């Protein structure tokens, strides 16, 4: 499960404008890049938008769309001085093929080069700074003149881009347009074929994402197309994509307080079982059910507080008589769509009337938390940031009316009248 | 029919608000497609070949006029002016925009409708006989209990992430028009020796890649224990159904691999633990819900219609009377099937205008009520015999008067490769070609009762396994190839059709069907012997020869 939602920092700009942009994202079929582009160029920001193209392996698709909408749209190319000769030739090829009439070459400030990269090897020692002086600086100077810009970014390219929408509002209140957001590798190639677009000369040689020559390597079959960029360095995006939208955020979740109980996140006193632990002496550890059954005496002889881990496929019946010996029972949801834990939880809570902490571990997401609660789960180990936020703020959108009575703690208030009556009769 | 009380209305309102929030989070990019998928599916929203597809529940196939008018409105405002009725008695819209979904759901909620659990690995819309509450041969109207099951299964917290989807069908009488033996659970009304109505419970039926006829798990479960018994089945399935392979995850595989006897024991053990608890259904509640489905105030009339005479005067009307009426329990009334299978049309499609025309007819002639059939037609359940002519004339006007119910051109057809992302071949164009080939009314009449069912892939949404003649579209080396099966039957004489040999190219299919038909007509004992009976008597050989010669 991705932490990708965090890439969207809380908006600081005008809320109405933000909502307008959000609404735009629902207006176009996911694959209709031309319509997105036309909306941006003709309607949203006429005369006030430009495109930056790397003239790389996939650039022809977006440029073809640009040519369809407006051949005179400013197309910026960052001549970093580090490009492959093939890329420079390809700029001319596409220009002629598509009839683009407004390609503008941007070069780094010679003073910056002289000062920071006199030997031309900055890419090796500090690639971030190299990108900065060669791409971010020249582009920033130019782009401040526009209300928005068009990018060729695609969701599939890197995991951080998994939630890329068609339209984004940047932190400085400009609009970034991503017509190809939903295009897959296959879509891009199909588009190239369908429109007879000339290939980048290096594409056939195995380059799938082409940037400056020193920082681009060949991508192996099946590898992430951008894996060839900055290979071996912990760097995924160049500065020009990095500086908007509050940057690529790190997970907010802290490791210390990830147990949600009684309305707040607290430090978890328990730890997971790990290989090599001693059943007779571990403390505050969730012991897997299977191990417990095989070593029942040793575990029951352990004087410390411990928990039990119940995984899908486990028969909780087999440990029913001993549940009261555990301070916590963890029901594992290895994937949010594996619903076995709901049955397990109901059996533990309702049939065996377990009174201790019943927690959900694994893929615990906000949309399933209300169901888990109804099945008797009282605590949640949460790593998914949006879920964490929702729990902290108490804002879980859910349905609070129940047709069916479930759970012992859930007096079926809100259930159908006949079920409420029946439940009252039973408890009397 | 059932009317929402405040509780139901508030429930759907909250659910709509919840899903609107999820849609907005998706549009804002706060949740990714993987996280959104199960949420949208549980609200009936699929991502299809061209666009989103919204599937709206028509609980147990019953609609009021105002509901059908709202569906027409949605078709016109948010879609391309038509909707598609499905084999699950639901309706699908093929072209809505994601951003419009919250508004569509709010519109639906205003007429007590929703899209909850029309997809996803949860308990789906409960289907019944389209003539429920009207049929002359019925023991009990299954819809009150179906409504109670709808409520019990709505957002059930334990059963929202089952191994796979779960479908329940109910039949209120011995003649099974709801294909209950091909559902995960089938319920057949049955009277015990004290005269009390309960349910025979069948489990583990299904079509798809692995067609299976359901096994009987319980001969008789009275209403009061039905919820607890079904919850026991679902719990056993949720815990032990396979999750390692989505093609083996339906309960039919669990029943098949574990054996019905062991499953029966496990369900019985679970039932012992929860029986007589909160799920015990009081008769008062069955009666309370039942009151919503009370028979309308029928007039005491005894009109009849002389079909033979009408046919002489106007053959098309006579044909329609002959084919599209079903016997009503009330003398002087009939149930009218409105065929959505015009010659050469897309089976199950209705335009907004047609929906409105049908809504008007239901309001005027059928106590405001209408039905969706699992064979993708509509039904006016309670029409006075003396009104039939007016109804027919109005249907002619709306281009809905095809008199082919149950005939060769009344085919079940999945959307196929024209819409569906899973399909491997086209199905609608095949149905259209067959429909054109057999368009002549005399020819259809000569053939008589015959069910052709067409699926565009092995998932079998077009029920080809249970077609008297089934057609399965596959893809072989980039070319569509159609397998033909014979002998399937979805009724109480349930059987799965057999393939007799190699498949056919798309353009060869109509001729192949014609050879089967010619063989049947040549070999039947009397003109009254239906295709399926003749097939049973004759066996495969003559039909195999018709398809492949005797080489």
Automatic annotation (TrEMBL), chain A:
Keywords of this entry: Cytoplasm, Iron, Iron-sulfur, Metal-binding, Oxidoreductase
Segments forming domain Phosphoadenosine phosphosulphate reductase: 49-217
GO cellular component terms, A-Z: cytoplasm
Catalytic-site annotation from UniProt: 238 (nucleophile)
Involved pathway(s): Sulfur metabolism; hydrogen sulfide biosynthesis; sulfite from sulfate
EC class of the enzyme, as a word: oxidoreductase
Pfam families, per the entry: DUF934, PAPS_reduct
Major location category of this protein: cytoplasm
Cofactor descriptive note: Binds 1 [4Fe-4S] cluster per subunit.
Compartments (UniProt record): Cytoplasm
Binding site for [4Fe-4S] cluster: 130-131, 212, 215
Record family assignment: Belongs to the PAPS reductase family. CysH subfamily.
Protein name as catalogued: Adenosine 5'-phosphosulfate reductase
From TrEMBL, chain B:
One Gene Ontology MF term: heme binding
Annotated Nitrite/Sulfite reductase ferredoxin-like domain residues: 52-110, 326-397
SUPFAM superfamilies: Nitrite and sulphite reductase 4Fe-4S domain-like, Nitrite/Sulfite reductase N-terminal domain-like
Signal peptide (UniProt feature, chain positions): none
Source organism, top-level taxon: Bacteria
Annotated transmembrane regions: none
Annotated keywords: 4Fe-4S, Heme, Iron, Iron-sulfur, Metal-binding, Oxidoreductase
Sequence ranges assigned to domain Nitrite/sulphite reductase 4Fe-4S in this UniProt record: 119-271, 410-547
Gene3D superfamilies: Sulfite Reductase Hemoprotein, domain 1 (3.30.413.10), Sulfite Reductase Hemoprotein,Domain 2 (3.90.480.10)
Assigned protein family: Belongs to the nitrite and sulfite reductase 4Fe-4S domain family.
Descriptive protein name: Nitrite/sulfite reductase
